[in-house]
Design goal:
By secondary structure, the protein is of the alpha+beta class. It has helices at 2-25, 33-42, 57-61, 115-121, 144-147, 151-154, 157-170, 173-179, 192-203, 249-263, and strands at 49-55, 84-91, 130-131, 137-138, 190-191, 208-212, 215-223, 229-230, 241-242. Strand 7 and strand 8 form a beta hairpin. Bound molecules: ligand U2P. Ligand U2P binds at residues 51, 87, 89, 91, 97, 143.
Length: 269
Amino acid sequence: MASLSIAMVLQLLVFVAALYTVEVNGFNGGDDGAVRLVSTVAEQREFDYYALAVQWPPTYCSKSTKCCAQNGCCRGSNSPSVFTIHGLWPDYNDGSWPSCCSGPAFNETEISTLRGVLEKYWPTLSCSKSSTCHNKKGLFWAHEKHGTCSSPVTGEEYNYFLTTINLYFKYNVTEVLFDAGYVPSSSEKYPSGGIISAIENAFHTTPQLICTKGALEEVRMCLTKDFKFRDCVSGSDCPDYVSLPEFAVSDALNGAKTAHRSFTGRESS
Ligand code: U2P
């Protein structure tokens, strides 16, 4: 009788262990446990729309304190002088967004043929590694929360990046603003309303402008899941007049020097 109960207890233990293993490993290869499974499921609700965010590197780079080979701010005279891609973000109508969705982890080799265009038009403007899902850090492009959460529409990783690049070229914010006279300047201030109108005239959509210390940092345009323009759920946060700074000459020179140092393997701090 006693040996029978021991066998039953052992069987029960094996069963519980098996159940636990299935639950932990079920979604994500089992690297971070059952809590992760719950949060993944909760965040799987499909997104409502996209925000295409493009950023103005001189504004972002004015906050950049560190140079390294990967940092697009540190390319000296080759630093980006056009709006570059920040992201194609799946968003919810309530102003939030999904942050980690199930699906394969970011795989750099899948986008190797796009690498040149991504380096140029989707550069990281920072030395710090971006957070990815699974509590890891990686390339700026590895914001899995965006690519994997977009997958119900864009499918596999390569197509997410290709779609984003195509939208970026199709809706060329740099060209529209420069053509309307909103050109980089170290002294001019431009009316935010004028910048918004230039985009409205070109694309028939109202963009959301994001500023840092009175300088235009980002333009976001919102799209339905079939890539037609729609309203964003948040408004602009810019003052009435904004600057569109040039890369300061000293920044470019410093960038050139530090980039050179970085490319020879020494990282500045
Ligand atoms: O705005 C700050 C950061 O929040 C993330 N974000 C913001 C708005 C939005 O619609 N979707 C979204 O993801 C961005 O985070 P990142 O991709 O840079 O990590 C944005 O920079």
